[in-house]
Amino acid sequence: MSDQTPENQYEDFPFNDNSFINVSYLRSPSNYASHWHTYGKFILCIAPGEAVFTVSSETYTLKERDLLMIWPCELHSIETAPQGSLLIIQYPGHMLSCTSELHMLQDFITHQHLLSAEEFPERAEQAAKLLRQIKTLSESAEPFRDTRKQICLMELLLLLGQDFSIPSPSDVETNTSRHSTRVLQKLSRACSYISQNCEKNITLEDAASYAGFSKYHFSRIFKEYMNTSFTAYLTSQRIQKAITLFTQQELSITDAVFLSGFGSVASFNRSFKQQMGCTPSEYRSRMSGGMETCQDSKTFS
């Protein structure tokens, strides 16, 4: 990467040797203008001093052993970083939802951006160990090294989501969703079903039936686990689909509205502004290099 790119530029980065995971070590720039991409990025500060980043209008200061998480399609920039102070791991965005369980976990962990070594020393050390293992594998000729790197990445995602309430298989199933592995598996399937069919006219009854619950029980446990309602989650999935359509596939916003499942442009604009903090046209202009700003809250409630 060069030290600067045009403001808010879309970056399409070629992965090395057709690898699913790319590693950049001691070659990161000291500053880099605002840009975004469809892949995710983990950035580990590996040297004394401070590195300052902006992610979705928020500023984060990394000290040695701190970890920064930049999720797919987030606008971000390097404000300043000591030369050779960063270990950067880049991975395709689809890895966040390659299983139904990871897809559900994605909605939980993408609210996080900074893992502070001072605040969470043990977890930060575990994360650093996994990232260094990915670096070591990328430099080796070990068989199945790319698969091993993917395993490390998934272990890191699970580490970041360890506060997500997942019951153990030994828990006794009761009527309380927190104690049922089977209930969690059903809920995971339901989340995948909603995401994959969000453009359709699916209802709470449809999702509940697919998961094997009554709509009242499903509504309660969905709110309990996901910290949002079925309706809000469905809306968020439709918004993300619309963003993909009008930014990556370059459809008109109007076409994206109806192809993503919204019944009207007005309802889409209202929901988009509430979740993303700006209008759809401002968002697209921002991602394509315009100067409008908005705050991507990435929340569903």
Summarize it:
With 301 residues, the protein is of the alpha+beta class. It has ten helices and ten strands. It has a five-stranded mixed beta sheet, with no helix packed on it.
Strand and helix map with partners:
Layout: E1 9-10, E2 22-25, E3 32-36, E4 39-45, E5 51-55, E6 58-62, E7 67-70, E8 76-80, E9 86-92, H1 100-109, E10 114-115, H2 121-138, H3 145-160, H4 181-196, H5 204-211, H6 215-226, H7 230-248, H8 253-259, H9 265-276, H10 280-287
Protein described:
The protein has 301 residues and is of the alpha+beta class. It is 42% helix and 15% strand. β5 (51-55) and β6 form a beta hairpin.
The percent range for strand residues is 15-25%
Low-confidence stretches: 1-8, 166-179, 290-301
Question: What string gives the helices and strands in order?
Answer: EEEEEEEEEHEHHHHHHHHH
Widest sheet, order of strands: 1-3-8-5-6
Largest sheet: 5 strands, mixed
Radius of gyration: 20 Å
Q: Tell me the overall shape.
A: globular
- Class by alpha and beta content: alpha+beta
Total of helices:
10
Whole-number mean pLDDT: 80
Helix content estimate: 40-55%
Total count of strands: 10
Distance between the termini: 37 Å
InterPro entries: AraC-bd, Homeodomain-like_sf, HTH-like, HTH_AraC
Protein name: AraC family transcriptional regulator
Keywords: DNA-binding, Transcription, Transcription regulation
Pfam families: AraC_binding, HTH_18
